[in-house]
Amino acid sequence: MYRALSRLETLITLSNFNIKFVTQNQRTRNPKLMTAEDLLSGQTILLDKPLDWTSFQAVNKLKYKLKREFNLPKKFKIGHAGTLDPRATGLLIVCTGKFTKIIPEIQDAPKEYFAEIKIGAQTESYDTEKPEILHQDFSHITEEIIKETLAKFVGEIEQKPPVFSAIKIDGNRAYDLARAGKEVEMKSRKTTIHYLENIEIELPFVRFTVGCSKGTYIRSLAHDIGQELRVGAYLTNLRRTKIGDYSIEKASSKYLENDFSFIEKNENSAQNLD
To answer: Which of 70, 127, 181, 204 could be cross-linked to 235 through a Cys-Cys bond (beta carbons 3.0 to 4.6 Å apart)?
Structure first.
């Protein structure tokens, strides 16, 4: 018996078709990859967000390029399906036109990240935005202890989002309050870690692949791992590799470059969109 595809599955299928079409045509000379009608009716564009770009900056740059190249109307709809921190890189799904309506559904999909943490120190931001503090000796920490500790975090867990996050508190972003020196109390929330795999230990660094549910803060996960180890830890590298069926392998950072054109390309500029 055939099962009817959900609206999200149908749009993902259409999106994957468009990605294959684009990739194939990029090998030819001067292809017209998208039309204004395509963008208005709905497209998904997979960005590989560069380091130190905010998600807003990436979408804004893309919006400016698309509006200029395709002469799109001022009220052209565009948005992303899940924020990435400035210090994170990787998959940022951008939806245009009517596809912006399915952004909440894409956001609900499970995520996958490559993460690197450093044990024996902490930072206020739980990542590299702030300097190291609270250094602690970790000479007693073994690979076995680390693997046993990581295993404790698989499943449903409680975590507090970082103070330096975009969560709103009484109408204000938490990071704005924190940077203004105000005390911020973050509430715990339930989230699910589906798996922690591909563990590499090269102390003080620990690297792994993590699959998780919507709303998981990998910075908080890094911090909580450090607290469980009782030596502290913070996130040193984060790269989002999957959202649902969308993968980083289909994404490109070149879409944000000034000399990249969505309309006309030659063989040289069409190669290796990574």
So the answer is: 127
Using an 8 Å Cβ cutoff, are 9 and 248 in contact?
no
| Strand 172-173 versus strand 43-49 pairing type | unpaired
Q: How far apart are CA 271 and CA 29, in angstroms?
A: 11
Query: Is the peptide bond preceding residue 204 cis, with omega within 30 degrees of 0?
Result: yes
Q: State whether the Cα torsion 116-118-124-130 is positive or negative.
A: negative
SS3 (DSSP) at 164: coil
Q: Is 176 a catalytic residue?
A: no
How far apart CA 112 and CA 195 sit, in angstroms, is 9
Question: Distance between CA atoms of 50 and 252, rounded to whole angstroms?
Answer: 10
Alpha-carbon separation of residue 244 from 82, 91, 128, 255 (angstroms): 12, 11, 27, 22
Cβ atoms of residues 203 and 138 within 8 Å: yes
E strands along 25-88, which residues?
A: 43-49, 78-80
Using CA atoms in the order 230, 235, 239, 240, what is the torsion angle rounded to 10 degrees? 60
Report CA-CA distances (Å) from 256 to 7, 25, 27, 68, 260.
Answer: 29, 19, 20, 13, 7
| Domains of the chain and CATH, by start | 7-108+246-256 (3.30.70), 111-243 (3.30.2350.10)
Ramachandran angles phi, psi of 153, nearest 5°: -95, 0
Who has greater pLDDT, 114 or 265? 114
- Per annotation, catalytic residue among 48, 85, 127, 224: 85
42-54 pLDDT tens trace: 889 999 999 999 9
The pLDDT tens digits for 56-79 are: 999 999 999 999 888 889 889 999
**Cα–Cα distance measured from residue 223 to residue 36, given in angstroms and rounded to the nearest whole number:** 45
